[in-house]
Amino acid sequence: MSKIRTDGFLQELNSEYKATRACLERIPESLFEFKPHPKSMQLGYLALLVAEIPLWIKHMIVDSEIDFATFKHESPKTTDEVVNFFERNMEAARNALQGTNDEALSSTNFSLKANGNVLYTAPKIVDISTTLNHWVHHRGQLTVYMRLNDIAVPSIYGPSADEQTFAPPK
Protein backbone atom coordinates (compact mmCIF):
# COMPACT_ATOMS: atom_id res chain seq x y z
CA MET A 1 0.00 0.00 0.00
CA SER A 2 1.35 3.38 -1.02
CA LYS A 3 2.32 5.97 1.56
CA ILE A 4 3.91 8.57 -0.73
CA ARG A 5 1.37 11.35 -0.06
CA THR A 6 0.74 10.25 3.53
CA ASP A 7 4.45 10.33 4.32
CA GLY A 8 4.62 13.73 2.60
CA PHE A 9 1.89 15.04 4.90
CA LEU A 10 3.79 13.74 7.91
CA GLN A 11 7.00 15.32 6.67
CA GLU A 12 5.24 18.67 6.12
CA LEU A 13 3.60 18.52 9.56
CA ASN A 14 6.97 17.84 11.15
CA SER A 15 8.77 20.52 9.14
CA GLU A 16 6.31 23.17 10.35
CA TYR A 17 6.52 21.98 13.97
CA LYS A 18 9.56 23.88 15.25
CA ALA A 19 8.54 27.33 13.98
CA THR A 20 4.95 26.83 15.10
CA ARG A 21 6.01 25.86 18.61
CA ALA A 22 8.42 28.82 18.75
CA CYS A 23 5.55 31.18 17.90
CA LEU A 24 3.20 29.67 20.47
CA GLU A 25 5.84 29.74 23.22
CA ARG A 26 6.24 33.50 22.79
CA ILE A 27 2.59 34.50 23.21
CA PRO A 28 2.12 35.80 26.76
CA GLU A 29 -1.28 35.18 28.32
CA SER A 30 -1.36 38.89 29.18
CA LEU A 31 -2.01 39.50 25.46
CA PHE A 32 -4.61 36.75 24.89
CA GLU A 33 -7.36 39.41 24.65
CA PHE A 34 -5.52 41.54 22.04
CA LYS A 35 -7.34 42.22 18.76
CA PRO A 36 -5.77 44.38 16.03
CA HIS A 37 -9.22 45.30 14.71
CA PRO A 38 -12.78 44.90 16.03
CA LYS A 39 -13.47 42.28 13.31
CA SER A 40 -10.29 40.33 14.13
CA MET A 41 -10.11 37.31 16.40
CA GLN A 42 -8.37 37.62 19.75
CA LEU A 43 -4.70 36.67 19.94
CA GLY A 44 -5.43 33.94 22.49
CA TYR A 45 -8.06 32.38 20.25
CA LEU A 46 -5.71 32.56 17.26
CA ALA A 47 -2.95 30.84 19.27
CA LEU A 48 -5.46 28.18 20.33
CA LEU A 49 -6.48 27.69 16.70
CA VAL A 50 -2.86 27.25 15.59
CA ALA A 51 -2.31 24.78 18.44
CA GLU A 52 -5.53 22.90 17.62
CA ILE A 53 -5.37 22.44 13.85
CA PRO A 54 -3.10 19.34 13.99
CA LEU A 55 -5.88 17.68 16.01
CA TRP A 56 -8.22 18.22 13.07
CA ILE A 57 -5.98 15.92 11.01
CA LYS A 58 -6.39 13.17 13.60
CA HIS A 59 -10.19 13.59 13.51
CA MET A 60 -10.21 13.60 9.70
CA ILE A 61 -8.36 10.30 9.55
CA VAL A 62 -9.83 8.48 12.55
CA ASP A 63 -13.38 9.86 12.83
CA SER A 64 -13.97 10.98 9.23
CA GLU A 65 -15.82 14.07 10.46
CA ILE A 66 -15.79 17.15 12.62
CA ASP A 67 -19.10 18.59 13.78
CA PHE A 68 -18.95 22.19 14.99
CA ALA A 69 -21.73 21.42 17.47
CA THR A 70 -19.89 18.62 19.24
CA PHE A 71 -16.20 19.37 18.65
CA LYS A 72 -14.64 20.10 22.03
CA HIS A 73 -12.31 23.08 22.13
CA GLU A 74 -9.78 23.42 24.91
CA SER A 75 -9.70 26.57 27.03
CA PRO A 76 -6.05 27.08 27.89
CA LYS A 77 -5.40 29.92 30.33
CA THR A 78 -1.62 30.09 30.08
CA THR A 79 1.06 29.95 27.42
CA ASP A 80 2.29 26.64 28.82
CA GLU A 81 -1.20 25.17 28.51
CA VAL A 82 -1.39 26.29 24.85
CA VAL A 83 2.02 24.74 24.12
CA ASN A 84 1.09 21.48 25.90
CA PHE A 85 -2.18 21.34 23.96
CA PHE A 86 -0.20 21.82 20.74
CA GLU A 87 2.20 19.00 21.67
CA ARG A 88 -0.68 16.58 22.32
CA ASN A 89 -2.31 17.50 19.02
CA MET A 90 0.93 17.06 17.09
CA GLU A 91 1.34 13.60 18.58
CA ALA A 92 -2.26 12.70 17.68
CA ALA A 93 -1.79 13.91 14.08
CA ARG A 94 1.52 12.06 13.72
CA ASN A 95 0.03 8.82 15.05
CA ALA A 96 -2.99 9.09 12.74
CA LEU A 97 -0.82 9.74 9.68
CA GLN A 98 1.54 6.89 10.58
CA GLY A 99 -1.43 4.56 10.92
CA THR A 100 -2.90 5.17 7.48
CA ASN A 101 -1.93 5.10 3.81
CA ASP A 102 -2.70 6.83 0.53
CA GLU A 103 -5.35 4.32 -0.51
CA ALA A 104 -7.31 4.72 2.72
CA LEU A 105 -7.12 8.51 2.49
CA SER A 106 -8.14 8.50 -1.19
CA SER A 107 -11.03 6.08 -0.82
CA THR A 108 -12.73 7.62 2.22
CA ASN A 109 -14.22 11.05 2.76
CA PHE A 110 -14.06 13.63 5.49
CA SER A 111 -17.18 15.67 6.29
CA LEU A 112 -17.43 18.97 8.07
CA LYS A 113 -20.78 19.31 9.84
CA ALA A 114 -22.84 21.72 11.90
CA ASN A 115 -25.41 20.06 14.15
CA GLY A 116 -25.28 16.96 11.98
CA ASN A 117 -25.85 18.87 8.74
CA VAL A 118 -23.09 18.28 6.20
CA LEU A 119 -21.42 21.53 5.17
CA TYR A 120 -18.61 20.02 3.16
CA THR A 121 -17.34 16.59 2.11
CA ALA A 122 -14.09 15.72 0.34
CA PRO A 123 -11.66 12.84 0.08
CA LYS A 124 -9.45 12.83 3.16
CA ILE A 125 -6.31 13.04 1.04
CA VAL A 126 -7.54 16.38 -0.37
CA ASP A 127 -8.69 17.87 2.90
CA ILE A 128 -5.53 17.02 4.84
CA SER A 129 -3.53 19.05 2.33
CA THR A 130 -6.00 21.93 2.64
CA THR A 131 -5.80 21.74 6.43
CA LEU A 132 -2.00 21.93 6.43
CA ASN A 133 -2.25 25.05 4.26
CA HIS A 134 -4.90 26.49 6.58
CA TRP A 135 -2.60 25.85 9.57
CA VAL A 136 0.32 27.68 7.96
CA HIS A 137 -1.99 30.56 7.01
CA HIS A 138 -3.09 31.03 10.61
CA ARG A 139 0.49 30.79 11.86
CA GLY A 140 1.35 33.60 9.44
CA GLN A 141 -1.55 35.59 10.84
CA LEU A 142 -0.18 34.88 14.32
CA THR A 143 3.20 36.33 13.36
CA VAL A 144 1.51 39.58 12.31
CA TYR A 145 -0.17 39.80 15.73
CA MET A 146 3.23 39.09 17.28
CA ARG A 147 4.88 41.91 15.31
CA LEU A 148 2.09 44.32 16.32
CA ASN A 149 2.88 43.51 19.96
CA ASP A 150 6.69 43.65 19.69
CA ILE A 151 6.97 39.91 20.24
CA ALA A 152 10.05 38.55 18.48
CA VAL A 153 9.05 36.61 15.37
CA PRO A 154 11.08 33.42 15.04
CA SER A 155 12.90 32.30 11.95
CA ILE A 156 10.36 30.31 9.95
CA TYR A 157 11.50 29.73 6.36
CA GLY A 158 14.57 31.91 6.70
CA PRO A 159 15.83 34.70 8.92
CA SER A 160 13.28 37.06 10.43
CA ALA A 161 13.88 40.68 11.41
CA ASP A 162 14.23 39.39 14.97
CA GLU A 163 16.36 36.33 14.30
CA GLN A 164 19.03 37.00 11.69
CA THR A 165 20.62 33.57 11.91
CA PHE A 166 18.86 30.68 10.37
CA ALA A 167 19.03 27.14 11.61
CA PRO A 168 16.99 24.70 9.51
CA PRO A 169 14.34 22.73 11.44
CA LYS A 170 15.48 19.38 12.80
UniProtKB/TrEMBL annotation:
The keyword Metal-binding applies. InterPro entries: DinB, DinB/YfiT-like. It comes from the Bacteria. Keywords: Metal-binding. This is DinB family protein. The keyword Metal-binding applies. Belongs to the DinB family.
